[in-house]
Amino acid sequence: MCDVESYIYMPLLEETGYMPKNKYSTGKEIRMHLERIAAKYGLTDRVWFRTRMDECIWDDDKKEWVMKLAELVHGGKEHEAVTVTSRFVILTTGLMLVPQVPRIKGIEKFTGDCFHPARWDYNATGGTPDDPSMTRLRAKKVGLIGTGASAIQILPELAKWAKEVYVFQRTPSAVAARYNRQTDEDLFKNEIANKSGWWEARCLNYCAHVNNHNPKPALDLVNDSWTNMPSYSAISGSPGYDPKTLQEIQKYYAYLEELDLKRQSKVRGRIDDLVKDPEVAAKLKPWYSGWCKRPCFHDEYLDAFNNPSVHLVDTDGRGVQEITENGVVVEGEHFDIDVLVLSTGYKSPFLYSPPGRVGIKVLGRNGTDLDAKWSSGVTTLHGMMSHDFPNMFWPGFIQGGGNPNYTFIAEQAAKQFAYIVATGAKETRSKASSDKRYEYNFTIEATEDAEEKWAQKIVSQAHMFGASAGCTPSYINAEGEFENVRDPEKLARMARTSIWGKGQEDYNNILRAWRENGRHEGVEIKSV
After folding, report:
1. Can you list the alpha helix ranges (DSSP code H) found in 104-180?
2. Where are the beta strands (DSSP E) in 141-212?
3. Is 500 helix (H, G, I), strand (E, B) or coil?
4. How far is residue 299 from each of residues 131, 153, 406, 448, measured CA to CA in Å?
5. Per its UniProt entry, which superkingdom is the organism in (predicted)?
6. Which of 79, 207, 514, 519 is least enclosed, having the fewest CB within 10 Å?
7. Is the alpha carbon torsion for 405, 182, 97, 494 positive or negative?
8. 49: CB partners within 8 A, 6+ apart
């Protein structure tokens, strides 16, 4: 179940007229809504499902991208590779797609069922995506490694069905209430979806609170645990504060810590209120800044530990020691396990380029490797395009705007892509081309100067995120990898992987102003 409000997370609600069933939607409902969108816009027959892109190479003579694809069939087998060409490529590779499996000693020896939540094995548990009745676990001991955003959703369901559940915890999550509830139809129509443009306005209101605007809007439209966590601006940016000197920066960090202390104290107090065993409650308490790990929100997770069949195995930050053929070892103690769920997260998006996150090899003009360019120091225009990679776009995040609602980030990027391509078509429509294969015969590319200037703006705001230094391992700091960097050159390159330091709305305003001035500064458009 999603922990971002469905009224702002689910896209195109205005256009489809759909009303989400609850304040927070299930994966099934989100999937059905995507099918609704695809049907409305005639996309269903244009999607090539179960197909992986392996490489994408720019042909500078023909001014097109040449892609090698592999179509997957049942059982993971592949058909022969297929080559396709396109004038434009948009890399919507998301943020966290590649499951992360821990390198635990002996993990390959385990003989029971073992899987990552991203590849849930219903053959092992029973049930289906439509019917989560995990009847095959009734006589099983289940091990759940991890206590992050996925695990907190999994545990309450496992507790309903499994004979025993052992939760192996490295670092406790800060779990606030979600307060999910059914959508009131009258309220939705009269107070939420009551005017044109309501969806974007609600998203902006949400960002104003999450990004800790100063001042904030008087009315908090979403009013949930996200919008009541202004300290999250420590990693999402804020337009309300602009510290310059070392003293001002230190004062700003102290201010964030003060905000967070109040919030984390409430989170710990909630644990005492809900978990009956004081020893278990103590081990579930997060003693770190709330922005260090992805904040979690759930209404049943903590109460699951009151179930006598649920056992918390706290590893005191060290993690699981070893996995055997039939169990898990922590501090020399062996726990017999029949089914092992590796709720261990995903690879950090901050370590890879957009195609690199999913293993796509991208070579631009003159064979320039996007991963190599990324690792040597990220340069983009607005976090969406890069020099030597004509007609290729991606919806930001790194060097772009930041907020927990990625749908809004993608929606703003889509506006920008549409404007850029439409501008290219308008400026080149009077120029004939001999290539009749494509409707659009032009290239669009960021200039070197423009992308370097944008990168420097990103670097100049990187201090806005300095309060996150010293955090516990998570995807936010690449499982602690960033904490170990001391080399000045590497630190300078890391600063380029930041997001826009002044929050999502300020970033949106920059994009809108760029479009409205009509000069497409920093972008070259050429007929082909």
Report:
1. 122-125, 151-161
2. 141-145, 164-169, 175-176
3. coil
4. 20, 9, 23, 49
5. Eukaryota
6. 519
7. positive
8. none
Contact status, residue 451 vs residue 220, Cβ threshold 8 Å: no
- Measure the CA–CA gap between 527 and 434, rounded to whole angstroms: 11
Token code pair at residue 169: 């915890």
- For the chain, what is the radius of gyration of the CA atoms? 24
Positive or negative, the Cα torsion across 208, 214, 219, 224? positive
**Distance separating alpha carbons of residues 205 and 7, to the nearest angstrom:** 12
pTM for the whole thing?
A: 0.92
Identify which of 56, 55, 91 has the alpha carbon closest to the alpha carbon of residue 396.
Answer: 91
Residues in the chain: 528
Q: Hey, how many other C-beta atoms are within 10 angstroms of the C-beta on 505?
A: 19
**DSSP for residue 11:** T
Q: In 3-state terms, what secondary structure has residue 51?
A: strand
Instruction: Indicate the SS3 state at residue 208.
Output: helix
- Identify the CA nearest to 126 among candidates 97, 150, 160: 160
Are the CB atoms for 442 and 91 separated by under 8 Å?
Answer: no
Cα three-residue angle 74-75-80, rounded to 5 degrees? 70
Q: What domains are there in the chain, each with its CATH number?
A: 48-97+348-527 (3.50.50.60), 107-178+263-342 (3.50.50.60), 185-249 (no CATH)
Where are the alpha helices (H) located in 41-188, listed in sequence order? 122-125, 151-161, 185-187
Give the integer Cα–Cα distance in Å for 314 and 44: 46
As a whole number of angstroms, the distance between CA 194 and CA 373 comes to 46
Name the token pair of 254.
């102290």
pLDDT (tens digit, 9 = 90+) per residue, 420-477? 999 999 998 877 677 788 888 999 999 999 999 999 999 999 999 988 887 877 666 6
User: What phi and psi, each to the nearest 5 degrees, are found at residue 66?
Assistant: -110, 120
Check if the beta carbon of residue 297 is closer than 8 Å to that of residue 112: no
CA distance linking residue 393 with residue 32, whole number of Å:
27
C-alpha span between 152 and 175 (Å, rounded): 8
Q: Tell me: the pLDDT tens digits for 347-400?
A: 887 778 899 988 999 999 999 999 999 988 999 999 999 999 999 999 988 999
Measured CA to CA, the distance from residue 361 to residue 55 in angstroms comes to: 4
